[in-house]
Amino acid sequence: MCIFFRKIAACMPTYRQFPAAGCITRPIALHNDGFHLCSCTGATGLQTSATEFASWMRNFFYPLSGNSQTLDMLTTNGSLNNGTQLKYALGIGEGSYLGWKLYAHSGSDAAFRTTMFVYPEQNLGIAIFCNRSDMKPADKAIELSSLLLKPHPDYIPPASLPTIDSNNAEPACLSCYNNFIGKDYIADNGVQCSIIAKNGRIYWRSFGEDLLLKELRADSLVVVNRPQTTLVFQHATKKSGSLRIRKYTRGEERIFRPIQLTTPQSEDIRQYQGTYFSKELGIHCRIIWKGNIEMSIAGTWFHRFKFVGVDDVLSEDWPVEHIVFQRNKRGKITGFAIYNVSVQQILFSKIR
Fold first, then answer.
1. What are residue 337's phi and psi, to 5 degrees?
2. Does residue 57 contact residue 65 with C-beta atoms inside 8 Å?
3. Percentage helix, strand, coil for the chain under 3-state DSSP, each rounded to 5
4. Which pLDDT tens digit goes with each residue over 249-290?
5. What's CA 32's distance to the chain center, in Å?
6. In whole angstroms, what separates CA 71 from the centre of its chain?
7. Residue 352 pLDDT
8. Residues 37/44, Cβ–Cβ less than 8 Å
9. How is domain 174-258 classified at the architecture level of CATH?
């Protein structure tokens, strides 16, 4: 079922049942012991339907909440400390499609997927809420956009990416990659991957998916079904140190280093234990040792940790996939930072 107003399209609501209320959203109550702040703000924090969400998108064109300054604030892209301009504003991504300005946001939780597209120049909004994890609402939003929009008069189609043939994907020298195959890797943002070999071919295992790689030239391989992504394998040298993999996607570089499991010394184990506090989140964390690190953040326990270096810890549990402990000049642990695909450097200071 789709609902249109002018050009506002809203597809089926998610799993929750909603009364016919006039309000657009109803925040879920905040529990003092809840660590996942997305339970009260952001993902899963608002009970709404696609129909109600269409009313929210109308606000981009006919503001009832806030004013033009509010919309400017929501849609003004941020920037990094070094001046790099981002394509992301206050919870809203900015881009274009068929030459028209596009504001977008997406979300997911458990088996639910959502996407919002707003074209302010065309008075067009699309909201798609899916209750299946294998749905791709952004792809559906693009399909709807193609049906409802004509290209901008000045639109120049981008050059299409080349299609990579999966045939003959065996590298010329498979053994040349032996130092990389069979290892797990981690990027500075906490993303983990593995390089594996099957039937003479090399695969990049990422987020549970094995992606076939095809050699472009020695030590440079492209992801067959994602030709915008290239992996460059760098062997260990005196200058670079340990081997690494450089991943390039549309000009963005991400460096992956091998994960090497380590065992902390007993004196370090005692230093890790204690109580920590995050000013940013306003919550406490407790760390104890029971043969391995066990961490309680605002009442939620996490257990599956492994050391991959001095003060460097990985976990299989979101949102603590990558934890880096911090020390002062005297070598005493003063806190730690959490890194994952969603957030970077969430700081916790040791208070006792």
1. -125, 140
2. no
3. 10, 40, 45
4. 877 888 898 887 777 776 667 788 899 999 888 888 999 887
5. 26
6. 25
7. 86
8. no
9. Beta Barrel (2.40)
Distance CA 241, CA 168 (A): 33
Structure tokens at 281: 């989140």
**Residue keyed to tokens 């899963």:** 44
Give the residues of the chain that fall short of pLDDT 70.
1-47, 65-67, 110-111, 161, 238-241, 266-268
| DSSP 8-state class, residue 159 | P
Q: Tell me the pLDDT tens digit for each residue of 14-70.
A: 333 333 333 334 444 444 444 444 444 444 556 677 777 888 888 777 777 666 777
Q: Are 35 and 283 in contact (CB under 8 A)?
A: yes
Q: Give every CB contact of residue 235 below 8 A, 6+ residues apart in sequence.
A: 179, 219, 243
Asked, colleague to colleague, whether 174-258 and 266-350 share their fold, the answer is yes
Tell me the CA distances in angstroms from 149 to 98, 129, 146, one per residue in order: 8, 21, 6
Q: Does domain 3-148 have CATH number 3.40.710.10?
A: yes
Fold of the domain spanning 266-350: Lipocalin (2.40.128)
Of 119, 121, 117, 118, residue with least CA distance to 137: 117
Distance in angstroms (rounded) separating the CA atoms of residues 114 and 107 = 5
Strand partners of residue 154? none
Distances (CA, A) of 221 to 156, 164, 175: 30, 11, 15
Pair of tokens at residue 335: 């806190």
Give φ, ψ of 9 to 5 degrees.
-110, 130
List the chain domain ranges. 3-148, 174-258, 266-350
Separation between Cα atoms, residue 161 and residue 163, nearest integer Å: 6
Contact 9, 3 (CB under 8 A): yes
Q: For residue 319, is the peptide bond before it cis, meaning its omega torsion is within 30 degrees of 0?
A: yes
Length of the chain: 352
